[in-house]
Design brief:
Blueprint lengths: L2 H5 L4 E4 L17 H13 L4 E3 L8 H9 L8 E6 L1 E3 L5 E3 L3 H15 L4 E6 L8 H13 L3 E7 L3 H8 L6 E5 L6 H5 L1 H7 L2 E5 L27 H4 L3 H17 L4 H10 L4 E6 L4 H11 L5 H10 L3
Parallel strand pairs: 1-2, 1-10, 2-3, 3-6, 6-7, 7-8, 8-9, 9-10
Antiparallel strand pairs: 4-5
């Protein structure tokens, strides 16, 4: 379709929230800077070229580590970052698409990444209080100045896309997609296909539930947002755990892992150019790379979805 498939030899992107360490904000547990950089370098050596991040991931720590990892070969990777989720001095999160904030966030991300440009810059969430066209004007000017090369939207809808297009071209959309959440399939995929806009999924593995590593007995350290985030604690996860176990059984009966089932679920949609997954160590990374090359057939995934009534 578009830029993402041109950028990546494999349909897998690195989800940068996984290496935000003890920085806080949206992150998934402690990992040292040196280990994070080694993991990023291993990802590159293994063929991954797209690295997704945002300022809220570790309050800048993810961007910093990605910048350090690829300082010497910046032109060989594609970095994605975002505006719209920032924070106050006391680290209370603030979500806004205010144009002045967007402009400030672009400049701050360029400094944190230690880069002259960001390959794909995205508006993180819709904001009912701000006309997206105002935010797009800021991003469009930054693109004209060479500070960002492409513009995208996250967690968006058709109405927002249409308004954004009035100002500049949208080349990629990023939203949640997995076995448990397929809203985008009916809500925005037809529009993306018509407009030839790339799609990448976050939440591909539903915070680890669709790998089997996150279950009812799993505990998380204090720097892992799953230990405190209201959106995680309020979820009805017991049903997901049960369904994940059923999916695992269905897959294993045909020689496939739960991880392979989860990846295949997303990649069976022709609109999906890239799945974002956040590895936290070399073992997880290599499992992802192995699984992306051993995906079950579409028919098995369709059967699994129906069998589990997802």
């Amino acid at each position: 379709m578009g830029i993402l498939r041109d950028w990546s030899p494999i349909p897998l992107g690195f989800g940068g929230a996984s290496i935000s360490g003890e920085g806080g904000g949206y992150g998934f547990g402690e990992i040292s800077q040196s280990n994070a950089i080694s993991l990023l370098e291993e990802s590159f050596d293994s063929g991954i070229r797209v690295f997704d991040t945002a300022p809220i991931y570790g309050f800048g720590e993810s961007e910093k580590r990605i910048g350090l990892a690829f300082k010497k070969n910046r032109e060989k990777v594609k970095i994605i970052s975002k505006c719209g989720v920032t924070w106050h001095d006391n680290r209370r999160v603030n979500m806004t698409n205010d144009p002045a904030t967007a402009k400030k966030m672009i400049e701050e991300s360029l400094r944190t990444l230690d880069s002259e440009y960001i390959d794909l810059y995205m508006i993180h969430w819709p904001d009912k209080n701000v006309d997206i066209r105002k935010t797009m004007e800021v991003l469009s000017r930054a693109k004209d100045e060479g500070k960002i090369h492409h513009i995208g939207l996250c967690n968006t809808n058709v109405e927002e896309c249409e308004k954004a297009f009035e100002v500049d071209k949208i080349e990629a959309v990023q939203s949640e997609l997995n076995f448990f959440n397929r809203d985008v399939v009916t809500q925005i995929f037809p529009y993306l296909k018509d407009k030839n806009i790339d799609f990448m999924s976050w939440g591909t593995l539903d915070k680890g539930i669709l790998t089997g590593r996150v279950h009812e007995k799993r505990t998380f350290d204090k720097s892992d947002c799953r230990s405190w985030a209201p959106w995680w604690k309020s979820q009805k996860k017991d049903q997901k755990y049960q369904l994940a176990q059923r999916l695992k059984t269905i897959g294993e009966e045909q020689g496939f892992s739960l991880l392979e089932m989860a990846l295949s679920h997303n990649l069976r949609y022709e609109e999906v150019s890239l799945v974002l997954c956040g590895a936290r160590n070399s073992e997880q990374l290599q499992q992802l790379l192995k699984s992306i090359n051993n995906l079950p057939a579409k028919e098995l995934i369709e059967f699994a979805a129906l069998e589990c009534e997802i």
